[in-house]
Design brief:
The chain is of the alpha+beta class and 270 residues long. It has 2 domains: 116 residues, no CATH class; 135 residues, no CATH class. 65% of the residues lie in helices and 10% in strands. The two termini are 32 Å apart.
């Protein structure tokens, strides 16, 4: 589960209906004194904001029950839990979660308002940290997409090996050796080591060398697989292909990293 880290406080974030919800219970740790989420929920301004939010996003919101609750806001005797509020109004902006990572969660829009209740400064830090978390997620999505693309592209590579390098009448285990050897041609060209060398160096890591590649390396890997397929068809020897692919990997990685640094510098200068 992802977390926001603000002023030594760790705040859990979860998905609900494909939307981001932030743990208000965790956020309370940043507020001085003995306070509860119910203290915030009984506030008239809080209820007005939640009512408007639900009106915009929740067609099944129970306005009748909400009106009764809202009319009691401000009275000393008035107090309502998140669980009761959700049960009576059919709200979707809040929910109470039990068990590990439990607590009261709110949609990010409402959670940001809760952060403002704690302090304006705290809200700024919450929004900033949340944006950082989203940027990290986008990077991971991009990496995953390129990793999947490289796996699909690998079939082009293996087909070229099958049709041009694997002799007839050999066993499947012998064929697998050829596939593995050709995969290592790409590994050495791009990473400078075979799959076994990487595994020997990282015995505690799960997966293989390609699972730990950068986005830039995965992009180049896709290009190397396509190029190696064409080189195999032309009858180039493995040593010739290895030298050519290594040179190609160096050139492409140099361009990609230079481009990434340029974008980073432009971003920092804005």
């Amino acid at each position: 589960m992802p977390k926001l880290k603000i002023q030594e406080v760790e705040i859990n974030v979860t998905k609900f209906n494909n939307e981001d919800y932030i743990c208000l219970t965790d956020m309370m740790m940043a507020k001085d004194g003995e306070f509860f989420v119910t203290d915030w929920l009984r506030n008239k301004n809080t209820l007005e904001y939640i009512g408007i939010w639900e009106k915009v996003y929740n067609p099944n919101f129970n306005y009748g029950e909400f009106a009764v609750i809202k009319n009691q806001a401000g009275l000393n005797r008035f107090k309502i839990s998140v669980k009761d509020f959700v049960a009576k109004t059919n709200a979707i902006g809040l929910f109470a979660k039990a068990g590990r990572y439990g607590g009261t969660y709110a949609h990010k829009d409402i959670a940001f308002e809760f952060a403002m209740w704690i302090s304006p400064e705290f809200k700024i830090y919450v929004v900033k940290e949340f944006q950082r978390l989203k940027e990290e997620e986008l990077k991971f999505v991009g990496w995953s997409a390129k990793r999947e693309l490289s796996k699909i592209n690998y079939h082009i590579h293996t087909d070229a090996i099958k049709n041009n390098l694997i002799p007839k009448e050999i066993t499947s285990s012998e064929a697998n050796v050829i596939y593995a050897n050709e995969a290592d041609v790409l590994n050495v060209a791009l990473f400078g080591k075979t799959a076994k060398m990487w595994k020997d160096e990282n015995p505690d890591l799960k997966g293989n060398i390609r699972d730990y590649a950068s986005i830039e390396q995965l992009i180049v890997l896709i290009n190397l697989e396509s190029m190696n397929s064409e080189l195999i068809k032309t009858g180039k020897s493995q040593s010739e292909r290895a030298l050519f692919l290594n040179k190609m990997a160096i050139e492409q990685l140099t361009v990609l990293y230079k481009y990434d640094n340029k974008l980073l510098n432009e971003f920092n200068s804005d």
